[in-house]
Amino acid sequence: MAKTTVSAPSDDPRRTELDLGMDAKQTARASEPITTRLRRATAPKMIQVAPGVFARENTSAVPDVTLAYWIPQDDGTFKLLPFTERMVRITTKLVRMLGFGGQYNTLMRLGEAGFVEIVRIAPNTHLINLDSWFNHVRRCAENTEFWDDKKRLNTYQRVYRRVDL
User: Fold this and answer.
1) Residue 100 and residue 97: Cα distance in Å, rounded?
2) Could you say which DSSP state residue 45 is in?
3) Within a domain: 88
4) Does residue 11 sit within a domain?
5) Residue 111: which of 64, 121, 101 has the closest Cα?
6) Is 10 contained in some domain?
7) By CB atoms within 10 Å of each CB, which of 14, 116, 119, 120 scores lowest?
8) Burial of 51 (0-12, 13-18, 19+ CB in 10 A)
9) C-alpha to C-alpha distances, 108 to 23, 28, 62, 130, nearest whole angstrom
10) Are the C-beta atoms of 83 and 65 separated by less than 8 Å?
11) Total structural domains in the chain?
12) pLDDT top residue among 162 and 108
């Protein structure tokens, strides 16, 4: 069971933060670079059970990163309903959750340029593979000069000029 107390700041000058009651594993994870946490969050959760046959890994650990809806309850509280699908419909709400402020254009262009996997399954209905999205975020976080690569930038700009979304 995790500690639940918060200790007061110490006069020790070597101590730089409050003890928030986290155990050693939680403290170590919190101090890891964002790229390490993103790599772990986007790692495939599949195991090979036979040659060429894969199944979901059965783990009881809570993921570091997930997307979820807030569902209002009758008593005035809310509960989280996480996305369990890898492919989800692109909606204004999802686009806002991914950080695009409700604007589809950039996300659709990233898909058209091949940076994320987006599938058009019907007119005005597109699905995005969330794994490909989180992998794209990880690649950008690991390489701060990701968009400085001329070939990559040209690919995106070519789609930007061609596609009027």
Assistant:
1) 8
2) -
3) yes
4) no
5) 121
6) no
7) 14
8) exposed
9) 42, 37, 30, 14
10) no
11) 1
12) 108
User: Token pair for residue 141?
Assistant: 């976080």
Of 14 and 96, more confident: 96
Q: Sign of dihedral through CA atoms 164, 117, 63, 20? A: negative
Per-residue pLDDT, averaged over 13-38, amounts to: 59
DSSP state of 148: G
35 in Cβ contact with 44 (< 8 Å) = no
Is residue 46 within 8 Å of 86, Cβ to Cβ? no
Look at residue 31 and tell me if it is in a domain.
yes
Model pTM score: 0.49
Quickly state the pLDDT bin for 118 (edges 50, 70, 90): very high
| Boundaries of domain holding 43 | 25-162
* Band of pLDDT at residue 127, cut at 50, 70 and 90: very high
